[in-house]
Amino acid sequence: MKALLITVAGLSSRFSESLGRACLKCIYYEDGPHETLLYQMMHQNNEFDCYIIVGGFRYQELTEYVGTYLHDFGERIVLVENKAYEKYGSGYSLYLGIQEAIRCGCDELIFAEGDLYVDRASFTRIYHAERNVITASREPILAKKAVAFYFNEQQHIRYIYDTSHSSLEIKEPFLGIFNSGQIWKFTDKERISDAFSAISESGWQGTNLTFIQKYFEGLTDKDYEIVNFETWINCNTISDYRKIYKRGLGNENT
Known about the structure:
The protein has 254 residues and is an alpha/beta fold.
């Protein structure tokens, strides 16, 4: 069973501030309800056995949007509510989503953060990959918005992110650093379960990188591939959104 997990529980604070009002950015649109980040990500591929969406902030609006505009997926959509979205970090949304994926008997899982626009060709490559996948973008690595990963001298993958969006720090020599594309593919069912079980309750209350680091820990380059997105936009503000839809990029995925 293949599942797509999308987390959209966060407060969308930077987006709401740029818009001038509170808004759940994954379902925001200007010209039509098909021009949302969630609609685009859901329609990257319609062959998943299960689509898990973890919401929290403005959850009722999310459920109404899903029921009205994503009805073509039918019972393959599983909505999960993160009631602790204000208390805990992104890791808890991932916890709830993986918990549901394990319950459903998922063999392969693609996890995508819900504030992204990516090109369909790159996503298709991820979908068909036989190995695990780490993604990267060609955007500059800026502490105020980037999730980065690097390879240390032992060629181990390490992820770094600053929740305050102020600075990034690497405390060891490294061979290369990349801007994460914030989409991952996990192909080892047992490894998903083992990594999930190995993280403490407090560990799940931080960022989702705790699980990702745990899953990829010890893997070699024979166990995964890196997919570089041709088009990648992390939608933090209304200007980011308009880069997609005012330039017609969203038409690629409709």
